[in-house]
Specification:
With 325 residues, the protein is α/β, with parallel strands linked by helices. The protein has helices at residues 3-15, 18-24, 29-43, 58-85, 98-101, 104-115, 128-136, 170-177, 181-187, 210-222, 238-243, 253-259, 295-312; strands at residues 48-49, 55-56, 89-96, 118-125, 142-145, 154-160, 164-169, 201-205, 227-232, 249-252, 267-271, 273-274, 277-278, 283-288.
Length: 325
């Protein structure tokens, strides 16, 4: 059984006339007859009653139902294959943690889908270490990671110097520093030295979160042991805790560029310094450039880079006006 024979058989059922169908398909009547005979040998039974004129047998009716479904699927497969060859259909296996894809994907996907409506994104939410392992094993195509690995064929490009910020409300500063709060704010205008905030309670991010390690190193360099109000492996509550003046908290450019609008009006946003330099939790875009990537993956990578280049330019520092009353 082959698709040509099934197609000719299906066309013959429309006319139920060998001569008429052969003429319509630009075939000799003998060629059409040979295809029908081939199918009947395959099925082991006649497909048509031939007298007084062509009528489908029960076997012919069953084959017609089968061939219509198969030929329809074959047409869809050809369309899909054409799209695949044209690189307009496929799946992107993308890995990132929640805080890195939560705002980025909704921002770029409308643009991406407008150009590649038949490409789907398979998202894996995990830690950078696990995501890089999956990328190395060929289970993912593109990964956003805080780990910059140097492996043969791996492209690991810095897409965001993810600035670390300290969030402190005026209410909290007044509570612990009184009249000295204004001078602390002025001193931290171009960068916060954590020793200036040693009296405050803090919301800390714990290991294995790499950001937690960076913050711990900042406290170590400042030679202070922070008073821990709350600790967590995630910084998702950072904005709400800072706004409630319960403690000082930390955040980074991602996701602070979106969350800053949720902060109470008196919350200051200070860039954190480590050895007098700004601290960042760098973000890398990783993929194997020695492997072939369809056009839609290349476009997806381009949109991610463009998105983060806009975020990179932001300075989220915010020093609130001190109430002089």
């Amino acid at each position: 059984m082959d698709l040509d024979s099934l197609n000719y058989f299906t066309e013959l059922t429309k006319d139920l006339n060998m001569t008429k169908t052969a003429k319509r398909l630009f075939l000799s009547q003998q060629t059409l007859s040979n295809h029908i005979a081939r199918l009947e040998r395959y099925c082991g039974t006649p497909l048509f009653y031939r007298k007084p004129h062509l009528i489908l047998t029960p076997a012919g009716q069953a084959l017609l139902q089968f061939s219509q479904g198969l030929l329809s699927e074959e047409r869809e497969f050809k369309k899909m294959l054409s799209d695949i060859i044209d690189e307009s259909r496929g799946t992107i296996r993308f890995g990132a943690s929640f805080v890195r894809y939560n705002y980025m994907l909704p921002s770029i996907l409308p643009t991406f889908s407008a150009k590649y409506p038949q490409v789907s994104v398979q998202l894996t939410d995990d830690t950078s270490g696990h995501l890089m392992a999956k990328l190395n094993q060929g289970e993912l195509d593109v990964v956003l990671s805080v780990r910059n690995e140097n492996l043969p064929g791996l492209s690991s490009t810095l897409v965001l110097s993810n600035q670390l910020y300290l969030l402190v409300s005026d209410r909290l500063l007044q509570q612990f520093y009184g009249e000295a709060a204004a001078s602390i704010k002025e001193h931290a205008h171009h960068g916060a030295q954590l020793e200036d905030f040693a009296r405050l309670p803090f919301f800390l991010i714990t290991s294995p979160n790499q950001l937690g390690t960076i913050i711990a190193n900042c406290f170590k360099e400042a030679r202070i042991t922070p008073k821990v109000y709350l600790s967590s492996s995630s910084m998702r509550m950072s904005d709400s805790l800072a706004s409630s003046d319960l403690c000082a908290t930390f955040s980074t450019t991602m996701p602070l560029h979106k969350l800053q609008q949720n902060l109470a009006p008196d919350v200051n946003i200070f860039p954190v310094l480590y050895k007098s330099n700004p601290v960042s939790h760098d973000l890398y875009l990783a993929y194997y450039d020695n492997k072939y990537h369809p056009k839609y993956i290349q476009y997806f990578i381009q949109l991610i880079r463009e998105y983060y280049s806009q975020i990179e330019a932001l300075d989220l520092t915010r020093i609130t006006e001190t109430d002089s009353r």
